[in-house]
Each structure stands twice: as C-alpha cells, then as structure tokens.
Write a structure and sequence with these properties.
Blueprint: E1 2-5, E2 12-15, H1 26-32, E3 38-40, E4 47-52, E5 55-56, H2 57-78, H3 82-88, E6 102-105, E7 118-121, H4 123-129, H5 135-144, H6 151-154, H7 157-162
Antiparallel strand pairs: 1-2, 3-4, 4-5, 6-7
Helix pairs in contact: 2-3
C-alpha cells in the first residue's frame, strides 16, 4: 500500500500496488474489482453473497441480529427498558393473538412508560383503538381486563356536539 491517487475516483488515498487492484483505493476496489463469494444460503436456499456462518446477509440479520434490533428500537423509539417492552408485547390484551403485537400506551401519553400504561395489541385492535368510531368498544374490553380508560375519553360531549 502506498499513498497515491486512485485510478477510479482520483482521490489521494492509500492505493494497492498488487496485481488486479493496481492503483485502486479500497472503496473503489470493493466496487469494481472485488467479486464476493456466492453461496447457497443454508436458510433460504438461494444463491447469494456470503455474509457469515453459511448465510446470506438477510438471513444472517434475521437469525442473529433481529433481537438486538428490537431491543435497540424499544429503547430508542419508546424509551422503555427492553425487558418491559418484551413483556408488554407477548400477546394482544384483547384477543390474545401472539404473532404480531404492537405496543400501545393506554392513556395515549407516549411519555408515560409505566407498566400499567403499556399493553400489547394486535395490528387490528391497535388500529381500532386509534379510530374514533371503534375506540369505546376496545376500551370496554380493556377496562374488563383491568386497564383504566383515559380521562380524555370519559367525557365525549365535545365529540357528540362537533358531529352536527
């Protein structure tokens, strides 16, 4: 490696002086000359670039990184301890669906991250609870399960008068 101008990008960088990468900086070499190893992914059985452990990049991330990403997102977007987040989204509080569960703040205050204010809802019930027409119905079920109805929705006079 010597300092010189890259043949491709013309920037002054460390360039290689060996055979096929002659005169290219590392980023240009990876774009132009480097040929990644293709493998048949153990998981999805497609021929793709090798990431690690015999898996393509997508499968590797799904298998080894998805839990880390979920924990990071819980802290980043909700400012919630990952353990509390995982406990809250185990199953939908309304229908007990456990495949896809979203976090919902019962009092609609996203800064109130107390365990009593957090619940898991399936995508259907989460959409319903944010839709004015079906909200009362879902809140009734949540009240039966021990959650409190938010103060903002107890007095619905404002919404009854605004419809006319």
């Amino acid at each position: 490696m010597v300092i010189g101008n890259c043949k491709n990008c013309r920037k002054e960088r460390q360039v290689a002086g060996d055979g096929k990468s002659e005169g290219l900086c590392r980023p240009c070499y990876k774009k132009i000359a480097w040929k990644p190893r293709l493998i048949e992914c153990k998981r999805c059985k497609r021929t793709k670039m090798h990431q690690a452990k015999g898996l393509c990049q997508g499968c590797y991330n799904s298998v080894f990184q998805i839990e880390n990403i979920k924990r990071s997102n819980a802290k980043r977007y909700h400012n919630i301890d990952p353990g509390l987040y995982k406990k809250s989204i185990q199953k939908c509080t309304v229908c007990e669906f456990n495949k896809i569960v979203e976090l919902h703040h019962v009092d609609m205050n996203h800064k109130n991250n107390s365990p009593e204010n957090l619940t898991g809802l399936c995508p259907n019930h989460h959409k319903l609870i944010h839709h004015r027409k079906y909200q009362k119905e879902v809140f009734e079920i949540l009240k039966e399960k021990g959650f409190k109805e938010p103060e903002i929705y107890k007095d619905d006079e404002f919404f009854k008068n605004s419809k006319s």
